[in-house]
Amino acid sequence: MSGTLKIGVLGSGSGSNMQSIQDAIEAGSLDARIVSVVSDVPDAGILRRAERHGLDAAYLDPAPFKTKLDGEAEARTIAHLERRGVEVVVLAGFMRIVKPGLLARFPDRVLNIHPALLPAFTGIAAWRQALDYGAKLAGCTVHFVDAGTDTGPIILQRAVPVLEDDTPESLHARIQTQEHEAYPEALRLMAAGRLRVEGRRVRILP
Ligand code: GRF
């Protein structure tokens, strides 16, 4: 990889993380280009946001699977990303498990953001899990994706306090403000070639 980093974003939701990455690019603080936005949900907000920024956006039918990207759907997605020259795959609210086929095609080049301080609170609605557990700190984690769920090597984390009167929504909103800084920051490191995966640890080169 050299020059401007070509990013493909996969998302199922509102796309605020994709937006934060595009905003950083447009502001000139991230040397990258989003060359493809793909959603498994036909009317997802992420597709509308992408179109507003003139980005290449597509719905790809994930059938017949409900919770994973596999088989023909995975092959179609890989081909779609390859045709657009994607170098790094960014999962931004993508509500499916990605399988070894995609990971093998983009080794150490699939990133995810998770709304908790991993390894605590993997899986769905992690902010609610943190609140229900009584944690005093919550946050987000940007990590490389491996074959597990929310288990890959950690690139960076940002913490936020859990406040006395928090609701799941207020805590999630506080976490998301950190997500919107953490994802562009992780991609800046990636674009600058400063991330090296050494086993479980990600070394950030000077
Ligand atoms: C974020 O909270 C992210 O951590 C989680 O899904 C949510 C996506 O939000 N994986 P958005 O679609 O980027 O707004």
Describe the structure.
The structure is a single chain. The chain is an alpha/beta fold and 206 residues long. The protein has one domain (5-194): 3-Layer(aba) Sandwich (Rossmann fold). The protein is 34% helix and 27% strand. The protein has helices at residues 16-26, 45-52, 71-83, 100-105, 126-133, 168-191, and strands spanning 5-11, 32-39, 57-59, 68-69, 88-91, 97-98, 110-114, 137-144, 154-161, 195-198, 201-204. The strands form three sheets. It has a seven-stranded mixed sheet with strand order 3-2-1-5-7-8-9, sandwiched between helices. A hairpin with a 2-residue loop joins strand 10 (195-198) and strand 11 (201-204). The protein is globular and about 50 Å long. The protein starts with a strand and ends with a strand. 38% of the residues are buried. 5-O-phosphono-beta-D-ribofuranosylamine is lined by residues 11, 13-17, 46, 92-93, 113-115, 140, 176, 179.
- Class from secondary-structure proportions: alpha/beta
Report the top-level CATH class: Alpha Beta
H/E element order: EHEHEEHEEHEHEEHEE
Low-pLDDT stretches: none
Give the strand order of the largest sheet, numbering strands 1, 2, ... along the chain.
Answer: 3-2-1-5-7-8-9
- Largest sheet data: 7 strands, mixed
Ligand inventory reads: 5-O-phosphono-beta-D-ribofuranosylamine
Instruction: State the helicity in percent bands.
Output: 25-40%
What is the average of the pLDDT values? 97
Superfamily (CATH H level) name: Formyl transferase, N-terminal domain
Number of helices: 6
Rg measurement, Å: 16 Å
Number of domains: 1
